[in-house]
Specification:
Elements lengths: L21 H33 L2 E4 L3 E6 L2 E9 L11 E6 L11 E2 L5 E4 L2 E11 L3 E8 L8 E5 L3 H46 L50
Antiparallel strand pairs: 1-9, 2-8, 3-7, 3-9, 4-8, 5-7, 6-7
Helix pairs in contact: 1-2
Amino acid sequence: MTSPFGGDIANPMNQPTGPSSLGYWLGGLLIIGGIVGGIAWGWVNVAGFLNAVDDFERVPVGEIGTIQLDEGDYVVYAERGGGQPLGLFLDGVRMRPAGQEGADEIEFEPYVSEFTYDFGNHTGRAQLTFTVEDGGDYRVRVEDGPGTTATTAAFGPSVASDLVSAILGGFVIAGIGIVLGVILLIVTGVRRRRFRQRGWLNAWNGPGGTPIGSQPGSWNPPAPAPSGSWGAPDPQPGGWNPPPPPGGGYPPPTV
């Protein structure tokens, strides 16, 4: 015997289990894992960005200092302890290899885009770029001109890509986990719903696909005809049969 929800009532151990609900758990874990992974990625990369800014070589405005740089490309950042980073500016920066009075000065180029940072005691704006072909010590002079609004010149590699990677990477990781988790939840739900629908259809149709009530051995009484209408059953002997209406029940004769 089948139940209205599928399965065999007489043999409950033979109930079909259908698609597992494990997909719901896996989908939820993917969503949670994506969010946690995105936050972790962003935190690690932001921490790396902050450490890189802390490690910049710095020379106060109006002073001469010595910094150590390796071979590579660098950025000069105009810094100040607070304020609006977009308003920071260095009027003049001069740099040459230390101990080489006759050496050529490093050539600076304007920073082609806009990049600022503001956290803790560091508020800065990227202003100049330069390239160091030979690593070593460099003598730096930061002039205190009339247009200078910064208090410190910071020298370090470009960190804009690190910040972009921290933000976008976190969103990408979280987005992938959420999308995959939602897809798995939807697929699992659709499969389980289709299985229940098949169970209901099988229970309605019965064994072999024959609708219940039309199977061999089932009682299917005919629908009784309305009383007094054509096709009604004939009066049964011994039963009570009402007398015919006055006039014999026949139409009046025509003249």
